[in-house]
Design goal:
The complex is a heterodimer of chains A (211) and B (121). Helices cover 76% and strands 0% of the residues of chain A. Chain A has 211 residues and is mainly alpha-helical. The radius of gyration of chain A is 22 Å and the shape is globular. Classes of the chains: A mainly alpha (211), B mainly alpha (121).
Chain lengths: 211, 121
């Protein structure tokens, strides 16, 4: 058996016995989901460049305040929990969507928006406190890298919140049509990916500030 | 077909019991997050080991998110998604570790600032 036969042979447990080469294009749900998955991975690669910049510049405080002086761990823990619970309620949203339950969907989407909004509010308050303490992005290379990395994540959260509001409006007006469901699945992937990036942020930026 | 036999054949990659999966993911993630914050603040752990422990906890929590929230599995339906993820992780590793390696090497080879000033005079 040649390698080509091996690769095109249907996997065991697959009900459809047609070889992959003769099945035609994949259904649009699969294509859209995979395309969005690739976008998310490229987004995470962009974040990795910002993480690398932060790791390189974290010690270059130019005589200004360092992370140990600026960050409050308890505050960051509250931010983290807001985002983590919003990830859970986002999962509840997608379960409500699979059940076609508009009421449950709107409720969980609202809770997700409130938790995401709380995270964003805490972050904006932290940024403005730091800028008021003369520790803004222009103070040192360390702070430039910090504001770029954490600010880019915050910008993503803002876009995700706007996307949630738009999806609530689409479910209210269009109902659970296939196109709305596809967009919702992409949105839940986006929201969970933001939580994964935040794990990197709180580990490297906030908890790593001791070294 | 009875209820129990239809439950035995589930499409791979689809969430199983729904709420329970998300609750389990949330529970694991909370425990790992609290463990990270505890490890960073405690004196009970030998200090040079703390960054490694933090990295392990963070990678574990990312794994929890991928399995319980993304529902990514090693099943046949997820092969493409998994391959893309592995490539993404590879690129992220290259960018982060490559940058740190190159920059620390350049930093170590830099002429100290006071000597540079004397050379310019």
């Amino acid at each position: 058996m040649s390698l080509a036969d091996d690769l095109t042979r249907p996997v065991e447990g697959d009900e459809d016995t047609t070889p992959y080469s003769e099945r035609g294009p994949a259904p649009i749900d699969v294509v859209a989901g995979f395309g969005f998955w690739l976008f998310l991975l490229s987004d995470i690669v962009m974040f990795s460049a910002l993480f690398a910049a932060y790791a390189v510049l974290a010690d270059h405080t130019a005589g200004g305040p360092d992370g140990l002086k600026l960050f409050n761990r308890g505050y960051v823990l509250i931010e983290t929990m807001c985002l983590l619970f919003s990830s859970f309620t986002c999962g509840m949203c997608s379960l409500a969507m699979e059940r076609r339950s508009a009421g449950a969907f709107h409720l969980w989407a609202l809770v997700t928006i409130l938790l995401g909004g709380a995270f964003l509010g805490l972050e904006i308050a932290e940024f403005s406190r730091m800028i008021a303490e003369d520790a803004g992005p222009t103070r040192s290379a360390f702070l430039s890298a910090f504001f770029t990395l954490v600010g880019t994540h915050g910008l993503h959260v803002t876009l995700g919140l706007l996307w949630f509001v738009s999806m609530m409006a689409q479910v209210a007006t269009l109902g659970f049509q296939p196109v709305v469901m596809r967009r919702l699945r992409c949105l839940t992937l986006f929201w969970h990916a933001l939580d994964i990036v935040w794990i990197g942020v709180f580990t490297i930026v906030y908890l790593g500030a001791r070294w | 077909m009875t209820e129990s036999s239809s439950k035995g054949h589930r499409t791979p990659g689809k969430p199983h019991s729904g709420v329970l999966t998300y609750l389990a993911g949330l529970g694991f993630a909370i425990v790992l997050t609290l463990a990270s914050f505890w490890a960073a603040g405690t004196n009970a752990i030998w200090e040079p080991a703390v960054p490694i422990l933090l990295a392990a906890l963070a990678i574990g929590q990312m794994g929890v998110h991928v399995v319980f929230f993304f529902h990514l599995s090693s099943g046949p339906g997820d092969t493409n998604n998994l391959l893309a993820l592995i490539f993404g992780v590879f690129v992220v590793g290259l960018v982060v570790f490559g940058s740190i390696l190159i920059m620390s090497n350049l930093d170590a080879n830099m002429v100290p600032m006071d000597k540079l000033m004397k050379m310019q005079r």
